[in-house]
Automatic annotation (TrEMBL):
A Pfam cross-reference name: FGase
Annotated source species: Lentiprolixibacter aurantiacus
Protein name (database record): N-formylglutamate amidohydrolase
Recorded superkingdom: Bacteria
């Protein structure tokens, strides 16, 4: 894996180079094995939290981990194009617009002992900006090469905090063109519902049940690139113990193995569809 500046990453994308890189500040990774018409994203996979913020942060490492989306990059790591965040959403949230990407409070609890100094705020915001410069270059190149592009926007959520039965998979579609892409969404929902998971875990799937797909990653791509569909795909954290912070690797592997087959099938169906 190469360590590259944002400008170097964008230059390689423009040249249609095959590469795997980490940003020079280690804030995100990008792998491109081939310029296929689909991308896998895991913007909340990261857990890094820079040391200059530690003493000022009121949330524990566990509280941060609890709200992150661990293993979502691992679930799609085998695919040709994968972009993933390395930093915690508590440092800056890649799934929020720039003016709301840096929290003052999080999930009902104040985040900072003292207001974040301007230099720390600006440092975090620059990381957010850099990520979206690369996203813009990547999707722009793929739309240039292909008639249309599909993005699998992978997330997870804490299912035990709900006081009702919730689906294993939730697709958020409130901010996509459902008249145009509704059949693709339903097809993806159906594929996820047929996944077989260890220990008798059910693989139910619903649309706009727990979340509606209001994230900035989806909104930015959708509003900027009209021929790109973003599928906001959330798995309940059945692959870990939310309260003990224990990952179940056999469940993660089962998801990864089946997505290795299902994602290319869905991408092929999308490319062939008259949309």
């Amino acid at each position: 894996m190469l360590r590259l500046s944002v400008s170097e990453i964008i230059d390689l994308i423009e040249k249609e180079a095959v590469f795997e890189a980490v940003a020079e500040d280690y804030s995100f990774t990008l792998k491109i094995d081939a310029y296929v018409p689909y991308v896998c994203g895991a913007v909340h996979d990261g857990h890094q939290f820079r040391q200059s913020l530690w003493d000022n942060c009121l949330h524990t490492e566990y509280e941060r981990w609890y709200e992150e989306d661990p293993c979502t990059r691992e679930m799609v790591a085998s695919h040709p194009i994968v972009i993933a965040g390395c930093d915690s959403r508590f440092e800056y949230d890649l799934n929020r617009a720039p003016d709301g990407a840096i929290y003052s409070d999080a999930w009902g609890k104040k985040l900072w002992r003292e207001p974040l100094p301007k230099e720390e705020y600006d440092h975090s915001l620059q990381k957010h900006t850099a990520f979206y410069e690369v996203v813009h270059a990547l999707i722009g190149k793929l739309e240039e090469l292909h008639r249309k592009v599909i993005v699998f926007d992978m997330h997870s959520y804490n299912w035990k905090r709900w006081d009702r039965e919730v689906p294993t998979w939730n697709l958020g579609t409130a901010n996509i063109d459902n008249d145009r892409f509704g059949t693709i969404v339903e097809s993806w929902r159906g594929k996820l519902s047929e996944m077989v998971l260890p220990h008798g875990i059910k693989s139910t799937s619903l649309i706009n049940d727990t979340f509606q797909g209001n994230g900035f990653f989806l909104k930015y791509i959708t509003t900027t690139f009209p021929n790109t569909l973003v599928l906001a795909t959330e798995i309940a954290k059945v692959y870990c113990d939310e309260y003990a912070a224990i990952i179940f690797p056999e469940v993660v592997r089962a998801v990864e193995t089946q997505l290795k087959e299902l994602i290319p099938l869905q991408a092929e169906e999308f490319v062939k569809a008259e949309l």
